[in-house]
């Protein structure tokens, strides 16, 4: 028999937030997440304008993206754990402040160094705001059906925001200037912070003394930052340098693992990694995000460099993706997961991603948007709309309440690493294929199309690997 209070209601009913307050809190979390997701992608279309204005060379320009990714991916695990210790609301609101201030600094940047430093600070703020969101979400919605709906809404914002960033980047750059892709975050960030302070329920963390393993934090943060650095800069670095940095990253990960096995209060409880569902979901996500980043970035380049689209036209061409993702996630994902289970929905979504990438891998030189691009775009959007909420629910179900922030940070970390790895591998393959054909006398546009075609085919193979891995590892065990 469950305990009740004097008025006959259960303690859970008394202490849990009202339904309206919980969904208002979810809206605030989604708003903060949308700002960081948009800024991770909005800069890509504006890169040529930034290059012309500040005089970047090719390798230097890459650091406008790389500085953000390294700080964001390297800090996620650390700030996720710190969120458990100092309070997730405090970590989230602090992250919004850091991100907003960094956005203003990036928007007013007049030198290369100032922009790159501001982008690194943006990455740090984005990590602080993003790492704890899933942990807050599952605490707000403990009931499975409501939790599935909340995860679907959150995933819709994140997924649609990535594609929407491409459109906004082109529109703001063409209508105003590249500075506004960063300055637009000032009013958004201010409103999101004020709403978070007012709406989100206060919470106490476990306290820094309950798990502040600072040596372990230094080891894993260094290892993650070095890993992302190796990935995003591999194509512009000699092979010996890449191998050296890879070996150093592996050594830091090894030292971190030994530290966690022996520490009295480890940063990462190794039992968390023994969860088949959690580790399997993170591995599947890494492969799936590598595929989707390939579609987003290589697809945008294909539209511009092969089909001759401008900045605004490229962003507009991607608009059906966030619309389809938002409608499907909000309208169908939660009910579908509740009815058929996360495992089946995940497999169906991954299968759609495979088919969409296979269609896109044709990449003809004289393509029709309605025939050759849009069907693949819609299939990929539908697949991602089905797979991402299901995968998120599976990953978070493998963590205990006290590890929710850490599990959230881990899930976001594999997302960044998967995206960085997919982008580095696929862009390198495309460039290598195109360069080889040009050396043999091929024309520029057909050779470029061949390079992107190879990248899309490899992305299809990665999606197949994600489907096979999910089928083998995440299958529910019969009771």
TrEMBL record:
Q: How does it sit in the membrane?
A: Multi-pass membrane protein
Keyword Transmembrane present in the record's keywords: the answer is yes
Q: Which UniProt keywords apply?
A: Antibiotic resistance, Cell membrane, Membrane, Transmembrane, Transmembrane helix, Transport
| Entry's Gene Ontology cellular component terms | plasma membrane
Pfam hit, one: MFS_1
Q: Which InterPro entries match?
A: MFS (IPR011701), MFS_dom (IPR020846), MFS_trans_sf (IPR036259)
Q: Name one GO biological process term.
A: response to antibiotic
Major facilitator superfamily (MFS) profile domain ranges (all copies): 25-478
GO molecular function ontology, one term from the record: transmembrane transporter activity
Q: Does the keyword Transmembrane helix apply?
A: yes
User: Where does the protein end up?
Assistant: Cell membrane
User: Which regions span the lipid bilayer?
Assistant: 26-49, 61-79, 91-110, 116-139, 151-172, 178-200, 212-232, 238-258, 279-303, 309-330, 342-361, 373-395, 416-434, 454-474
Question: This chain belongs to which protein, by name?
Answer: MFS transporter
Which species expresses this protein natively? Streptomyces broussonetiae
Lineage here is: Bacteria, Bacillati, Actinomycetota, Actinomycetes, Kitasatosporales
């Amino acid at each position: 028999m469950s305990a009740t209070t004097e008025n006959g209601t259960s303690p859970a009913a008394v202490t849990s937030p009202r339904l309206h307050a919980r969904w208002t809190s979810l809206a605030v979390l989604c708003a903060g997440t949308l700002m960081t997701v948009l800024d991770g992608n909005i800069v890509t279309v504006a890169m040529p304008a930034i290059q012309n204005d500040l005089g970047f060379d090719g390798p230097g320009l890459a650091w406008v993206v790389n500085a953000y990714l390294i700080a964001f991916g390297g800090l996620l695990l650390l700030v996720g754990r710190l969120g458990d210790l100092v309070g997730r609301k405090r970590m989230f609101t602090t992250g919004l402040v850091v991100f907003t201030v960094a956005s203003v600094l990036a928007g007013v940047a007049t030198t290369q160094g100032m922009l790159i430093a501001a982008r690194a600070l943006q990455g740090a703020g984005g990590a602080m705001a993003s790492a704890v969101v899933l942990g807050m979400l599952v605490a707000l919605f403990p009931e499975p059906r409501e939790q599935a709906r909340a995860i679907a809404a959150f995933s819709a914002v994140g997924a649609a925001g990535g594609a929407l960033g491409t459109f906004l980047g082109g529109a703001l750059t063409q209508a105003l200037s590249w500075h506004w892709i960063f300055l637009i975050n000032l009013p958004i960030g201010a409103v999101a912070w004020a709403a978070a302070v007012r709406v989100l329920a206060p919470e106490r963390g476990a306290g820094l003394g309950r798990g502040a393993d600072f040596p372990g934090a230094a080891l894993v943060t260094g290892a993650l930052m070095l890993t992302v650095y190796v990935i995003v800069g591999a194509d512009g670095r000699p092979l010996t340098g890449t191998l050296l940095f890879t070996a150093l990253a592996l050594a830091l990960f090894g030292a971190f693992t030994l530290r966690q096995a022996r520490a009295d209060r480890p940063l990462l409880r190794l039992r968390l990694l023994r969860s088949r569902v959690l580790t399997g979901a993170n591995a599947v996500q890494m492969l799936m995000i590598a595929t989707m980043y390939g579609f987003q970035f290589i697809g945008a380049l294909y539209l511009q460099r092969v089909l001759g689209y401008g900045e605004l036209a490229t962003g507009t061409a991607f608009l059906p993706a966030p619309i389809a993702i938002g409608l499907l996630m909000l309208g169908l994902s939660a009910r579908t997961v509740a009815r058929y289970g996360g495992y089946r929905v995940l497999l169906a979504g991954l299968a759609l991603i495979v088919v969409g990438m296979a269609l896109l891998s044709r990449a003809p030189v004289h393509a029709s948007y309605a025939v050759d691009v849009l069907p693949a775009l819609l299939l990929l959007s539908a697949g991602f709309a089905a797979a991402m909420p299901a995968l998120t629910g599976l990953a978070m179900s493998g963590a205990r309440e006290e590890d929710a922030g850490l599990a959230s940070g881990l899930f976001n970390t594999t997302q960044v690493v998967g995206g960085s790895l997919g982008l580095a591998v696929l862009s390198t393959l495309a460039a290598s294929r195109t360069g080889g054909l040009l050396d043999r006398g091929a024309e520029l546009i057909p050779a470029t199309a061949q390079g992107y075609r190879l990248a899309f085919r490899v992305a299809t193979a990665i999606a197949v690997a994600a489907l096979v891995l999910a089928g083998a590892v995440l299958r529910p065990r019969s009771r």
